[in-house]
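INTERNAL AUDIT FORM
Audit reference: QA-55
Scope: verify that the stored structure record matches its stored sequence.
Auditor: D.O.
Record contents follow.
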Amino acid sequence: MSTTLYRKYRPQLWKEMTNQNHIKIAIQNEIETDKVAHAYLFCGPRGIGKTTAARLLAKAVNCERRKASESEPCNKCSSCEEITSGRDLDIVEIDAASHTGVDNVRENIVTNAKFSPSRRKYKVFIIDEVHMLSTSAFNALLKTIEEPPPRVIFIMATTEIHKVPATIISRCQRFDFKKISRREVVERLKYVLSMERVEVDENILESIARSSEGCVRDAESLLGQVLALRDAKNKISREQAELVIPKSDFNLVSDFAGYLAVRDAEKALRLVNKLVEEGIDLSQFTADLVEFLRKILLVGVSGNLAEFAFDLDEDSEKKITQLAKEIEPRRLINWLELFIEKKQELKFSDIAQLPLEMAVVEIVGGFSGVREAAAPPLSPSRPAGSVNFSEERPKIKPLPGKESVKKNDEIPADAAPIATNLTLEQVKEKWFDILRLAADRSPALVFILRIGQPMVIENGVLQIGFKYRFHKERINESKNNLVLRNLIKEATGGDVKVNGVVADLPEPPGPPPLEVNKVLEEFGGTVVS
């Protein structure tokens, strides 16, 4: 059975580790000065070298040929060879995810640690995914770490440091591992390819590095899948690699953002359908789009691309810088919220591209009540820059107010224009109309509104009082709140936020049933009892 690339080329020397220089220097200095700590805590994302560093540390402190002033293991003595192959009895590796209980910790660690190393200088316990241990298991481990036996070293690794008790963290030397930059991942892949004697286009390596998101192990695993497609000449074409690499092209993402920037719905929708036709993963595309918009937002706010060290090529930097000048931060925030939501909807949509198409319509359409309505139109004098779009964008009248919401109910074209000075009296005057609309749109909502009383409008927020907390919480649910806001807008022509509150109000007489209101409208008259 062949060995996977990330295991086959696991670094066996400190100098072979990719990045993490701040950690390597600190640990190497401790080894050289013989001041190794009794407990270490390595934390950080998956696949970036935590377990590798733990094994290197175990190998270095037990190397039989290492000189006192050196930190690199020789990899030739019996100790190094047995640790590399995983056969050394004094190096105990434990997967905490499958040994979570207190009995496992007592048997494998606490009791075992009391015995001196059988052959090596140090007995080393490497506990991977330590955050998975139970509370009682941590308590059993705590005393041993606090007062460790001589010649025992604990090395714990975790991807979720917040789940590790503070009492454990405070007794360890903590090292935070960082994600690997794209360029360093590419260099690492080139090294692996040189050892495998296979030729792969650098664009393919760039795609692998981008998909790995700074995780070297993921990158090497993906490269292994790509290498399985090599031909007799040990070469791999772009077309072959695309069969394995998650499909999402940076140029498609930047083009899509550019179409949205100039409100070109036709091209944006055409691109979405092109993605489906070419079999591109829409979820991956949306994730890449969110990351791309995030970079534009940060550059637009700071005005300095280098400040965030995005590790991009020159062409990508130009596109991001240009779009940061064209799209205002407020619009980008709305877009990010929208596409994060649509990414979740993609999982459950019967029509694959429908959530993305809806997002395009919400952003480009300029409908009342959609997110993009909160953003002002682009300045016509702003240049299009490197993004080439021939069509002239439509002029969209911005809606007042800073809050933007998702479209829920259609608002008739003949609805009253949005008022900027909606008063409490106007709301009370139209309250029965609002109830009537609610009865048609949301029967459950109308029962709540019937026992609520509009109280005051402050800072664009309508406070509706309820006697009981239950009704307040129901009206503040995002779905009900959004429906009510649209109903108020339709009935009054004014746009206000809505907030339910518990108030000590006198019992209201209550509105007459809607059927009575219809009779009163038809024939006139008033309710006298």
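Auditor finding: record pair retrieved intact. The CA atoms of residues 182 and 312 lie 8 Å apart.
Action required: none
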